């Protein structure tokens, strides 16, 4: 799954617990735990790729770049996002350390699944209970994952985090592999391999996907197709049509027509945007 880089969870002040439908590459300042209950989910964290099946868990630390894709249609993955304000003890125990692995299973899965169920009943309640349950979850994580001082991994993660931040702020402008490689101190060939490892896609495809999502948002806001294409950073209509159709499984004109038909059926609301969707979503 390729999509828009997001860091919106930086603003979360309470833990979130929900089922994942998959997500594109993103990072935020929180801890994110995925508990795969059934099926198979492909998870990539900082370039480390694994297909998790029922009974396995993944953990992304603060600013780890991660993405998920459901491999089987009946897959269920429960996600817990933990703001760092709820992980003070865990943070103190792991300060100046980094995760060396992100995946585990076995009996620890059953313990975490049970705690997720307890947390779901108390997540909107008092902070003391919520923090106690989260401490228990993170205690299991601490016992089942190796932590170390993997400086090279941390450096690469920081480079890719800064790279994604730059791309997200500048995708409407010209962005080249050579320019980014020079900016971050790598050869173009090495930077291309690093980007593909962490994002599971090439730079051009990633940037064009951001532009396609931006163009779709502009179209939903009333812009005509040509203006949306050029304002989102495309310099060629042929490329725009190709990327847009790949992203949304329809041409821009079909996208406009479908949105207009949906708006005629009901007053505008967020579900209209969800119904338009993306390929594979």
The shape is: globular
The second-level CATH architecture of the largest domain is Sandwich
What is the beta-strand fraction? Answer: 15-25%
What is the structural class? alpha+beta
In sequence order, what are the helices and strands, one letter per element?
EEEEEEEEHEEHHEHHHHHHHH
* Radius of gyration computed on alpha carbons: 20 Å
Count of distinct structural domains: 3
Output the CATH topology of the largest domain.
Answer: Jelly Rolls
Give the spatial strand order of the biggest sheet.
Answer: 1-8-3-6-10
- Helix tally equals 11
Q: What is the CATH homologous superfamily assignment of the largest domain? A: Regulatory protein AraC
Low-confidence stretches: 1-5
General description of the model:
With 281 residues, the protein is of the alpha+beta class. It has 3 domains: 141 residues, Regulatory protein AraC (Jelly Rolls), CATH 2.60.120.280; 54 residues; 59 residues, no CATH class. Helices cover 49% and strands 19% of the residues. Strands 1-8-3-6-10 form a 5-stranded antiparallel β-sheet, covered by helices on one side. Strand 4 and strand 5 form a beta hairpin. The radius of gyration is 20 Å and the shape is globular.
